[in-house]
Amino acid sequence: MQPPPRALKALTWVSAGLFAVALLMTLFYAPREAVMGDVQRVFYFHVASGWVGALAFLVAAVAGVIYLVRGSRRWDAIGLASVEIGLAFTLANLISGSVWARPIWNTWWTWDPRLVTASVMELVYIAYLLLRQGLEDPDRRARFAAVYAIVGFLSVPLTFLSIRIFRTIHPVVVGNNDPTAQGTFDMTPPMLQTFLFSLFVFTVLYIVLLWHRVRMQALAEAVEQRKMKMLSA
Amino acid sequence: MALEGPAQTFNYMLLGYAAILGCIGVLLISMIARYRAMQRDLHMLDELEAQGKH
Amino acid sequence: MTSGGVLPLSAGERARGYLRAVGAVVWKDLAAELRSRELVSAMLVFALLVILIFNFALELDLATRRTVTSGVLWVTFAFAGTLGLNRSMAVERDRGCLDGLLLAPVDRSALYFGKSIGNLAFMLIVEAIVLPAYSILYNVNLFRPGLIGVVLLGSIGYAAVGTLLASMAVQARTRDVLLPILLFPVVLPVLISAVKATNAVLLGLEAAELWPWLNLLIAYDVIFTAVAFMLFDFVVEE
Predict the structure, then answer these.
(1) Domain-wise residue ranges, chain A
(2) Is the pLDDT of residue B31 over 50?
């Protein structure tokens, strides 16, 4: 594999730096929330992780469509990379959400729309990887994975919609001015800045990880090909 | 009520950060480990090919 | 598609040819099933066993039974449906029918519609037997006008996406376990809406409780039939 392009190297360092800054912002710049205390700080990275999970899902679905239309293996790699990254960030979202819920609502789990939808998304991610694992032929594997990414992505908003009609106790963050409502809070400007910055940093992080992972996939395929040649020689 | 102050949730905060950083960390470690394994495979393949040529 | 010396088909002829192809696939499955009765009997026995298990798993007094019926029914249909889907697509693969069908000069989507209508039919047959059986065993009145409509809408959505995913799952090494893993996260909106709609019908709730779920079911059916129909080509090409 050729050494990473300069842009990627630079971006990697930048993203690491940005991440450190964001971490410090959430810990020291953002004020401590009046009711919930320190655990509320988790919220910034919690939502940012959820955002990356959803973005990764979208990218995987779009990559699936492009793969089916064009047949270029690169788009299959992008889909796979996106799913792996989305899996990790969605898990981060789920666990941090659970940890936040515990002191606030006195429960580790609630059956509200966002949490359940995130869990379903995670299950679709896992199913995607299991599907790939069960298929030997690379062309078929790529095609089926693309199809499933599309189907999965389309179903998740519908899942969200169906559960939404149930009562929710998930906090409505922005724009809700009733601080007595359970689990909600008003965002002061420093909080808003930290929040938006975290979203930005996590997006950059996603792009960097995606880029690296896609390059890795190209290498993996090259190694596979050489192994096959060696075995058949 | 006003003097009670925010809830004491510092430990949960640590747990939450640990979860997020942990997940991202596991992803990174997994990627790096796989990359190293591939490099090893490549070296091995290079050696085998060099041997095969004799 | 047509050879050199033949006149091109008119739109009407092509449409009729398409419908005939769909009908041929459906009839093939139904006729085979009529003779062997393996699929439906397996689904049926399984469904009745599930209902039996529920009887012991959930200690139900009469009041609770009424609220839980909807969920029990749909869990049963979902599991039995998986069985049927798996068998239906596995048969194609094992007997090599799929290759034969693919060689036929007909649009691939006709194959999709044929298979999914066949799968739907099997589900409906099983449901038609399970519903009265449940009604008797649990002493719950299931003869409500809207119920058939809800069961039909839910089954359509389930079969539409299930046929597509089963076609994929059956070509993988892990074929038996893979279909539920692929299907259940994706078919959740159908199950949720179907359960709530069935509940609304059975408990005689007002229309405002029922309509959101019916709308969701219809939306899901339309979206996923369209999507599955478009993607099916990619799943069966060799």
Answers:
(1) 41-173+185-232
(2) yes
